[in-house]
Amino acid sequence: MSADGTAGRQVRTMSDRHADVLAAFARHLAAERGRSGHTARAYLGDVHSLFTLLDDQGVDQLSEVGLAELRAWLGSLADAGASRATLARRAAAVRTFFRWAAHTGRVPVDPSVRLIAPRRTRPLPGVLRPDEATELLDLAAVRADDDDPIHLRDRAVVELLYASGLRVGELTALDVDDLDPAERTVRVMGKGGKERVVPFGVPAARALADWAAARHRVANARSGPALFLGRRGARVDPRQVRALVHELLSHLADAPDLGPHGLRHSAATHLLEGGADLRVVQELLGHASLATTQIYTHVSADRLRKSYEQAHPRA
C-alpha cells in the first residue's frame, strides 16, 4: 500500500477507536466554546494529525499519551516543513483537546500542560496611508456618480469597511435592521457570537443612505433582510467584496494590493495615529485580547521610524 494510503488507514483507525470522543469534542467546540465551523474543523484536523503519529508509535489509548509523544508529534511536523504559525496553531488545538479530555475524565491527567510550541512570527499587516485611503474612497464615489445601484453599493461597502474596521464576514452578514442611521452605528455579530455596536462617520452614512435608496432596484425574493446585495439580488458574499477592494486598489499608483482586511488594518492604524485609545480600538475591532490590537502600535511605530529615517539629516 502506498504511503498516502497507509496514512489514510492510520487516521481512520485512530478515529474509529476514538470516534465518540472526537464527536463529543466537536460538540464542545461548537456549543460551549462558540467556535466557528471552520475553527472546529481545523482543530479536529489537528487532533487527527496527532492520532496519525500515535498509530505509528503503537499508542492505542489516549491515557497512554504523554509529553514525549506530543513533543515528537510537533517535531515530526517541523521536520516536514510546517511553519511556526502552523506549529503554534496545532499545539493550541491539542492543548484545547487534552484540557477538555482531562476536565471530562477521559484522560487521568492533561499531558499537554508543558507543551510549548515555537512563538509564531506576526508580520506587520499591510496598510494604506491616509491619502491612499482617501483616494480609494474618492474613486468609489466617482464610480457611483453613474447611479448604477451596484456602484452605489460598492461605495457604501468600502466606506463602511474603512469607517468601522469590520471583518469582511461581519460586513456581508449585516441585515438592514443592523444599521441605525440616526445614531450612525451598526450592530455587528463578531467572532464567538459576540455582539458589538460600532460607530461610523458622516461620509459612510451618506454612502449607506444612497445605497438604501437604490437597494430596491436589485432586491427580489432571494434578498431577504440582507443589507448588501449582488446584481441578482442575493446577499453579497465575501469573495465579491474581496474582488471589489482588489480591483479598486489596482487603479491607485503605488498602493499596496490589499483586501478588505487591509482596510480593517488601515482603519485601526489611522485611529491610533490620530490619538484613539488602544482599548477603544480593541472594542471597535472586536478583539478578545488587547495583545491582538497592540500589533497596530507596531505598525504606527514602524511608519514613524521610516518617516524619521527619510526626513532627519542624521537618521
Overview of this structure, please?
This protein is mainly α and 315 residues long. The protein has 14 helices and three strands. It has two domains: 3-103; 130-311, Orthogonal Bundle (hpI Integrase, Chain A), CATH 1.10.443. A three-stranded antiparallel beta sheet has the order 1-2-3. A hairpin with a 5-residue loop joins strand 2 and strand 3. Mean pLDDT is 85; it is low at 1-12.
- Helix-strand pattern, N to C? HHHHHHHHEEEHHHHHH
Q: Termini, distance in Å?
A: 63 Å
Shape summary: globular
CATH H-tier superfamily of the largest domain: Intergrase catalytic core
Radius of gyration, taken over Cα atoms and rounded to an integer in Å: 24 Å
Largest sheet: 3 strands, antiparallel
Task: Count the E strands.
Answer: 3
SS summary, helix count: 14
CATH class assignment of the largest domain:
Mainly Alpha
Uncertain residue ranges: 1-12
* Structural domain tally: 2
The strand order across the widest sheet is 1-2-3
Helical fraction: 55-70%
**What is the annotated CATH architecture of the largest domain?**
Orthogonal Bundle
> What is the percentage of strand-forming residues?
under 5%
Which topology of the largest domain does CATH recognise?
Answer: hpI Integrase, Chain A
Average pLDDT score: 85
Features:
3 strands, 315 residues, 14 helices, three-stranded antiparallel sheet, disordered N terminus
Topology:
Blueprint: H1 3-17, H2 19-32, H3 37-56, H4 67-79, H5 84-103, H6 130-144, H7 149-164, H8 168-172, E1 179-180, E2 185-189, E3 195-199, H9 202-214, H10 238-249, H11 260-273, H12 278-285, H13 290-293, H14 295-311
Helix pairs in contact: 1-3, 2-3, 3-4, 3-5, 6-7, 7-9, 7-11, 11-14
